[in-house]
Hints:
The structure holds two protein chains of two kinds.
Chain A (H helix, E strand, L loop, with lengths): L1 H8 L4 E6 L4 E9 L5 E8 L6 H4 L3 E4 L4 E5 L7 H25 L1
Antiparallel strand pairs in A: 1-2, 1-5, 2-3, 3-4
Chain B lengths: L7 H6 L5 E6 L3 E10 L5 E15 L6 E15 L4 E5 L5
Antiparallel strand pairs in B: 1-2, 1-5, 2-3, 3-4
Amino acid sequence: MLFYQLFKSLIGQTITIELKNDIMITGKLISVDQFLNLKLSDVQGTDPKKNPILSSLKTCFIRGNVIRYVLLPQDQIDTQLLKESAIKEAAKIKEEERKMQNRK
Amino acid sequence: MNLEVKEPIDLVRLSLGEKIYIKMRGDRELRGTLHAFDQHLNIVLSNVEEVLTVIEIDEETNEEIMKTTRRNFEMLYIRGDGIIAIAPPKRF
């Protein structure tokens, strides 16, 4: 849930997504779900010559599993908070696994 | 924070805030400072350098030529399914 929360906090910001097929898409983040699917508006392909279709879209939905990278706006990220959340998340997952083990 | 390495993921946890090396699918390598990860190995890095290695074969001599392309990112989210290996910084 850590990255779901991270993307939720970035709603309204402009982000650039690089897909696994090397396409880059820039747009305003509209929504995110538990699979880290992303919805963008004001979409622009960063290379309009290569992907003319992208510049004809206003909004698009990107399935989470085709994403390779997301370029984040550095000034919007609290790295200290991220680090603490990552530690908490890791501890939570361990605790859940321990419970599952005990149940068996 | 527990400093023991019992499970593989502990190695990643102990590298938080440090510079790590990531080997990715498609002959990509990343170096950057680790800020967050989860159980899928989705990761956030800052001050990232990506090195993309492409091997081209010279048509005349049949020689393999390694070409590297470098890109830099300030802050990057990396989806875990593309990750092959993570190496923590060297500790001496």
